[in-house]
Each structure stands twice: as C-alpha cells, then as structure tokens.
Design goal:
Layout: H1 21-27, H2 41-46, E1 55-59, H3 65-72, E2 76-81, H4 84-97, E3 102-105, E4 118-124, H5 130-143, E5 144-155, H6 176-182, E6 187-200, E7 204-216
C-alpha cells in the first residue's frame, strides 16, 4: 500500500504479501528510512499549484517524507497509511522537523473516504491491486473540493526493464492511458510517461520509468 515493495529486501517476510500491513511493517523495521527523508522530486516540482496553507491528504504516505515536507511548507497535512510502523516513523520525522503531521492508520482500499474535504490529494508510488486502482483514484478525486488538486506519481510499465523499485506484476504498473481513464472527468493539467533518475534512500535508486499526473476536480466529477 505504501511505497513500493522490493522483494529482495532482507527485512521483508517472504510469507506475507505487499497487500498485508505486516509486509510493510517488516520493510520499515529498521531505524533508517527506506526511501530517505527528502521529498519526491515530482511533488516538489508541482507544489506551486497548491494554495497557501492547503489542507492536503497524503495517500499511502509511508514513512512520511512527503507529508512532512509539505507540513514544512506551511500546509495542513493528513497522512494515511496501513503500516503502523511507517506512521510511527512519520510521526518521529515530523517531531524532529518541528512540524505537525496528522496520521491515520487505514487501508485506503477499504476506508471511509472523506468527500470534498481537502484542497489536494497526493499519492506518490502507491500501487494497489489492479481491481481497486480505479476506485482508489476515484476516491482521491472526490476527497478534494471542486477545483482541488490531485497529484499521482506511479511506476510505468517500462519500469520492469530497470528493476529500481516497484511491483514486479505488470498489472500493478500504471501507463498514462490508465490514469487518463481513472480521471476522465477531471481537468488533466499534466500527464506523461518518462524516465527519471531516482535518489530516494536505498529503496529507490537509479533510472526509473514513471507516470506523472496532475489534475483538478471539476464540478462534474
């Protein structure tokens, strides 16, 4: 649910699944931050679209590097994740940085999502089972007010060539046309597949194929 599994990570229990919080609790068990403590580059590059003091929902925020950075920018951030261990580390990071971060431990594939409660909903490398991808994205869109922003960065199908993070199941990777279909009634501001160089802790290092989406909720969504 949180940022993507690397099956060869030694702390991950091979008997658990990435759909199981215990899998992620094991991956996040070390004191070090698996994906580092610096924010994601796509997020920082899109932050200009956010209004001042925005109320932001971080979906699958993991150890909190992105939610904490947004809080440092003066935003009011709620980070939701289903790994208690991840949220413990996110809370610690927020305390270390002197900012406030609200955390919710929940599975976003089975959660009572808010409606029109946020200025933005953001998911960075959130990969869920294929059958629930569209429902989760629709819930993200409806969690923001009309005119609110949705940001998504996912691994694209070509990521299987690079092996620098992400699911090994091609059905869990997100081509641009799939995201376009998920947000068909939104105002899509940016949507592209590209190759970037990741430097996000030991979990994401090197060239990676990603899909970026920035969209706004319309009154019709």
């Amino acid at each position: 649910m949180t940022e993507n599994p690397m099956p060869d990570t030694p702390n991950a229990n091979p008997e658990t699944s990435p759909a199981d919080p215990a899998f992620w609790d094991a991956k996040y068990g070390d004191a070090a931050f698996l994906y580092g403590t610096r924010p994601n580059a796509f997020l920082t590059g899109q932050a200009w679209r956010l209004p001042p003091s925005a109320r932001i929902l971080m979906v699958g925020d993991g150890e909190g590097r992105n939610g904490v950075w947004l809080a440092e920018q003066g935003h009011r951030v709620v980070s939701v994740d289903f790994s208690p261990r991840a949220l413990q580390k996110a809370t610690r990071l927020a305390l270390d940085r002197g900012v406030r971060l609200t955390t919710i431990c929940a599975d976003v594939t089975d959660w009572d999502w808010p409606e029109a409660a946020y200025d933005a909903a953001i998911a960075i490398f959130l990969h869920v089972r294929p059958e629930v991808r569209r429902p989760v994205h629709r819930c993200m869109l409806h969690a923001v007010r009309p005119g609110g922003l949705v940001l998504v960065e996912s691994f694209a199908p070509d990521q299987l060539r690079y092996g620098t993070g992400g699911p090994k199941d091609p059905d869990m990777l997100h081509p641009a046309d799939a995201l376009a279909a998920d947000f068909t009634d939104a105002d899509i501001l940016e949507l592209e597949e590209s190759v970037v160089t990741l430097g996000e802790g030991p979990g994401h290092q090197g060239p990676a194929a990603v899909t970026h989406l920035a969209a706004r909720r319309t009154d019709k969504a």
